[in-house]
Amino acid sequence: MPDPTNTEIAAALDELGDLSELDGAAIYRINAYHTAAKTVREAPVSVLGLARQARATELPGIGATIQEKIIALADEGAIPATVKLRAKFPPGVIEMTHLPGLGPKRARRLFEELGIDSLDALRAAAEEHRVSSLRGFGPKAEEAILASLRLAGAGERPARVVLDKALAIADPLIAALREHPASQRVELAGSARRMTDTVKDLDVIATASDPLALARAAAQLNLVEEAGTPTEAGVRLRTHTGIRVDLRIVAPDQFGNLLQHLTGSKQHNMALRDAAVRKGLHVSEYGVLDDATDETHRCATEHDVYALLGLQYIEPELRENRGELEAAAAGALPDPIELVDLRGDLHCHTTSSDGTASIEEMALAARATGYEYLAITDHSASFGFGDEVSPERLRQQIAHIRSVDVDGLELLAGSEVNILPDGSLDYDDELLGELDWVIASVHSSFRMSAEQMTARMIRAIEHPLVDAIGHPSGRKLERRAAYSLNIERVIEAAARTGTMLEINSNPDRRDLNDIHARAAAAAGVPIVINTDSHRTAGFAVARYGIATARRAWLTTAHVVNTQPWHAVQALRPRHLNGRPRRRLRTGASTARG
Ligand code: DGT
Ligand code: CA
Ligand code: CA
Ligand code: ZN
């Protein structure tokens, strides 16, 4: 058997975790396997290589026992503990544990009490209503199982990688290539350069004094698990995290053409080509051919490519064929917001709910980020923090926040309150009125009809003490779809009441997404870009919220927290109540309807 890759080792550890859970092992043991699997999956170097040098234990969450298991997997083809447990539980039972909403405890009961040992057997049992006869299952659970089976049967999509995980590989990879003596220019292209939510693979382009030497060096990098044959044109790589990389090497005078071509998007390129053909120009990755002179212009920079076509330079985030070519031709592109434009963050957590740092630590981290203000918005009682954030405790927290003095930072007492299923909030108005800032989010009862969810959301939006709605769609990239929601009606209600909508910067959320953020801003909804930090390092994810905002064509004029706190405060619904609302947007209309 060839040496197991990081992906294979991670899968083996996850399998052992699942089997141990089926077997009723202690929770810490189960968690240890899954934590180790995550570490291995994200490790940039070969974990087996480390284990062979007895150095895998340097990775977080990997001790001597797991290191031994990794060696055994390589040497014996399987982890002995896994072999033992596989004899107890058929593979179909493990598959059952992965069905959304089922999990190991219930899968084990289905196996032991009904003898169900495969997905097919489970489907048959559910269709014959044998599952609902089991105590604790019922007709609803049976329905949910059938729905999950239908989704599982729909065939697995090839996995896409969430952008932060991809950039965690792209950044060091590009840095390493830039350091190589043969390299000249090295740039990221493709969807990662456009800062899309997820990417299929990484596209990197370079120029080099010795292209073959650079391609060979790339294939030898520590990050690389497997490489194709290096040539003067580049090399294809697979990194230890499983992400694939296309490295293309070109002549310096064509660098702009190739960077433009490989940055995409495909839709942008196709529309660009069509527009160019109407001017007698043919755009390709090798140059721009002019029909009139039969001359091919090679472009060293992308600016040259766009200028040749009579277009303003278009930022990569805007290249999705969503009107940017028409705007560039008219000289009407927006001036997209940048990270440095943010002056504060209005959504973060501390140890009072599920954060890992104190109020003081978060305040210092925000100031170190360069912010002028920070709202502490711990979860409310009904999120499951009960006494931790009972009304009494929240009053103490408000007092605590007001007593913290961090020079140069305005600290605001806020809360992220739950929007209950009926659209009401879980603190009373008197308490909400004592807060400087209220953000309201849905954290429970996701499975409602679009009609119900929209009504629930609009009721929260109409509450005069709600300043903003947090992560409005509830999606988790590659993990959980957005709940059913009529976003147009939500945007309409937010615009009508002056309630702000959040772009949550967490790279697993990016919520509002680019399309909805653009529609909201075009409707006049004030947008707030927050990190939802749960730790001091969390403020760094603002770059993803900014990326979504740029992809949504937003400028500083659309985003409230580009303004000082006193200006944000004046914009809040509670101040606008009963008065005609000042429109935030000042610039020309930048978004299409
Ligand atoms: P993804 O799926 O996240 O990797 O997205 P991209 O945009 O990185 O797509 P990829 O890696 O398949 O291709 C990189 C770029 O190459 C793409 O953004 C535009 C260009 N490209 C690829 N296929 C075509 C095509 O059929 N026509 C044109 N005009 N350009 C293409
Ligand atoms: Ca790509
Ligand atoms: Ca590619
Ligand atoms: Zn939050």
General description of the model:
- Helix 1 runs antiparallel to helix 2, helix 1 packs across helix 7 and helix 6 crosses helix 7.
- The protein starts with 5 loop residues before the first helix and ends in a 17-residue tail after the last helix.
- Strand 8 and strand 9 form a beta hairpin.
- A seven-stranded parallel β-sheet has the order 11-12-13-14-15-16-17. A five-stranded mixed β-sheet has the order 2-4-7-6-5, with helices on both faces.
- It folds into four domains: 148 residues, DNA polymerase beta, N-terminal domain-like (DNA polymerase, domain 1, Orthogonal Bundle), CATH 1.10.150.110; 89 residues, 2-Layer Sandwich (Beta Polymerase, domain 2), CATH 3.30.460.10; 73 residues, DNA polymerase, thumb domain (Beta Polymerase, domain 3, 2-Layer Sandwich), CATH 3.30.210; 165 residues, Metal-dependent hydrolases (TIM Barrel, Alpha-Beta Barrel).
- 43% of the residues lie in helices and 13% in strands.
- It has 593 residues and is of the alpha/beta class.
- The protein is built from 25 helices and 17 strands.
- The structure holds 2'-deoxyguanosine-5'-triphosphate, calcium ion (2 copies) and zinc ion.
Distance between the termini: 57 Å
Mean pLDDT: 91
Oligomer: single chain
Provide the CATH architecture of the largest domain.
Alpha-Beta Barrel
> Describe the biggest sheet?
7 strands, parallel
Relative strand content: 5-15%
Low-confidence stretches: 578-593
Under CATH at level 1, the class of the largest domain stands as Alpha Beta
